[in-house]
Design the sequence.
DNA sequence: CTTGGAATGTCAACAAGGCTGACGTATCTT
DNA sequence: AAGATACGTCAGCCTTGTTGACATTCCAAG
């Protein structure tokens, strides 16, 4: 694209230069490594992976969610999700209940054991997030959230916003 | 950890509640999907994946970098990287030159074809970043960067900072 | 000059976690 | 009664990560 992003209005939009954008891209890449590092370490021992973490997280967030809901949020195929879900159910971390109204649906819940793992994982992840937030301060955090939301795909953003203000 | 983050100083640090942290975590998760979506789409056609993108990106960033450097930055094993690198060299996107001083080392460069693919990928990724930055504004962008840097692992942050201010 | 260690490459085997395609079953909707 | 929907499952494939073992090449220290 443009070598440097020359603005329309004559004002130098320095934060939109390719150079600045590259720094943002690399920051995103490296930060995501940190973001997943702690849960990954915990899961490594337990024969689970990131996929299990994601499933557990969103089941915790929305107890009773259906498989289809989860598919949409995670953005994977049902075969992929099913593999993960099956082991979680077998291991007694997730319970799958047949729907009341619509018996085709399965509603997913964490068992006490599942909830315990969820807490362990999210404690670790939250702790890093807390440190980062504390170091950066509230204004930075607001900006952080703004940029992230603007980076999402349209459809994903809708899902995010639907979740955003629901309490766990 | 704490149900809600009760501050030490008596001041309500609202942005550090578990609830706020959870939103940040989910924002990070969904945003990263958007972050990689465009390059992934481009690469899907070409029988390459994210791993190739990362290698190409950092070779472009630091032409002549050694395999060991790249390993440290990417955080994968040499076997993993080697597989990716081999296909890129075979396909004529990357050139691997034996080191002048230390002939054990291989210095990596993009060929014109490699540079072309790099440009295609980073144009797409930068474009999304540009849109997000533009939508959020310069103050938000500064905050975004601050939080991301605070989220990195110590060792990674050092590498990031070393790269950060080098021009491509 | 020899030798230890570093940097690199390569082979083999394996696992996680994506994907597609096909099929089956139960259930709901029309 | 027929079609659509929700879910599960089997089979097979790919990418990308891992470990372990081993060969080569070369630098540098003794």
Sequence:
């Amino acid at each position: 694209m443009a070598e440097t992003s020359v603005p329309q209005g004559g004002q130098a939009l320095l934060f939109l230069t390719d150079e600045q954008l590259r720094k943002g891209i690399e920051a995103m890449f490296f930060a995501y490594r940190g973001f997943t590092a702690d849960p990954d370490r915990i899961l490594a021992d337990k024969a689970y992976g990131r996929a299990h973490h994601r499933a557990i997280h969103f089941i915790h967030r929305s107890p009773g969610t259906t498989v289809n809901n989860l598919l949409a949020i995670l953005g994977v195929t049902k075969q992929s999700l099913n593999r993960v879900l099956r082991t979680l159910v077998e291991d007694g971390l997730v319970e799958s209940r047949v729907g009341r109204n619509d018996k085709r649906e399965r509603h997913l819940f964490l068992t006490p054991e599942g909830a315990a793992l969820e807490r362990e994982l999210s404690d670790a992840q939250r702790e890093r997030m807390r440190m980062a937030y504390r170091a950066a301060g509230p204004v930075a955090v607001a900006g952080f959230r703004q940029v992230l939301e603007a980076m999402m795909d349209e459809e994903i953003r809708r899902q995010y916003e639907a979740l955003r203000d629901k309490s766990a």
Observations:
- The longest helix of chain B spans residues 18-45.
- Strands of chain B lie at 65-66, 94-98, 106-110.
